[in-house]
Amino acid sequence: MNVATRRAWLGQALGALGVLAAPSLAFAQNRARIVIVGGGVGGATAAKYLKLFNPELSVTVIEKNPVYVRPYGSSEVLNGHVSMEDLNVSYDALKSRYGIEFVFDTVTGVDAAAHVVTTAGKQKIGYDRLIVSPGIELMYNAYAGYSEAVARTAVPSGWIPGEQTALLAKQLQGMREGGTFVLAAPPNPYRCPPGPYERASLMTEWFQKHNPTAKVIIVDPKDSFVTDETMLLGWNRLYNFNLPPDYVKKMQAEVEIKQHAKPGMLSWVRGKDGGRTLKIDAKKMTIETEAEVIKADVINVIPPMRAGQVARTLGLTDSSGFCPVNRRNFASTLLPDVHVIGDASIADAMPKSGFSANTQAKVVARAIVEELAGRQAPEPLWENTCYALAGEDYGLFVADVFKIVDGKIGRINGKSRYLPLKATPAQLKLGARYQQAWLRTFTSDCFA
Predict the structure, then answer these.
(1) Sheet strand arrangement including 33-37
(2) pLDDT per residue over 306-360, tens digit each?
(3) How many CB atoms lie within 10 A of CB 92?
(4) What CA–CA distances, in Å, run from 314 to 61, 118, 131, 311, 317?
(5) Which residues, in sequence order, are bridge partners of residue 121?
(6) Which of 111, 164, 216, 341 has the greatest number of C-beta atoms within 10 Å?
(7) Continuous segment of H or E residues that includes residue 51
(8) Could you read off the pLDDT of 10-35 as tens digits, one per residue?
(9) Is the pTM for the entire model greater than 0.85?
(10) Are strands 101-104 and 58-63 parallel, antiparallel or unpaired?
């Protein structure tokens, strides 16, 4: 599919969302109670768009934290491009502009028959429809020697931004001259597919300026990743990274691949080469993979993930650790009148990303409005774009459109998903500017 055709597909997707955003006046007199558990991207977007679709709805968000700390773009804390404070997002606009109620508490249970959720603060909150957007939980214990306590004090993850992100930034920026930084990438499925590799890129770029004899090693249980060809090409150009032979074979007919006599500081150990993590020793600062034991100065572990704790508390997960849903409206297949959106849901071809959660929230909000009014919801259409940086001026992306195909959510925009390998330096720089602009506009769409 050529660029013009892909733009047409995306235009159709945006047009469909525009149709979804049309107000439902017939439902304006119904004061239905919609309760949302989780105030992240999915929950905040659902709350906002429910009120946009029908201002008469009663919308309440139950969220344990009074300030949202955005995960998207949080790796830029590590190279000092932004501060931890820059990640903070307020709920004030959702309260004042849309009349959304917030309860800052932790959900501890649900009575599905009575349509009531309970909280740690002993509140009982009734609902007509419940939307759960719990995000992900990191499975620290998946590796021998690793735990949440180790992550908080010595070997941080920081994949859920907070104190661990700040600790990792301090460790990396203070790493000794010529030290080794090891990033353990996660297995599928995980939040933000290009994210681990962007994190390694940003730190490689930073080390080039501030610690030029440092080493960056990615150990990976996988043999490929989303945006891999465009990201590896960026590494080849920016960091003297030599691509694996199979990638060279795939890409060399389309673009020049340099073979560097002296490889740079960045290396990637794939699953087929023994890159799967087995054990962490925080005292010795070593990480054991199937291939070797690596001595490091800083280790960043991004462990396997599953649906956030509240999803399991409410009985919304299956044996996969994630939440099965009806594909049309993301209604839970395990509890009635409950919808699960975002990273916790089983959404087939859709990646676990903020953009996916945002578009799922809009579709679900519209479906709830229509279903409560006794009308059929429109045929769903979703989209996703993941932006990533190989360097400050080297931007990448993957863009997709989805619809229901044979009962599951499938990608329908063909193979033209990425910035072309032949992209010019100007296009790559523009891609980086897109990423920075998206951080601002996306946050505004969700929270303002």
Answers:
(1) 101-104, 58-63, 33-37, 129-132, 338-340
(2) 999 999 999 999 999 999 999 999 999 999 999 999 999 999 999 999 999 999 9
(3) 11
(4) 16, 10, 12, 5, 8
(5) none
(6) 341
(7) helix 41-53
(8) 444 444 444 344 443 343 335 899 99
(9) yes
(10) parallel
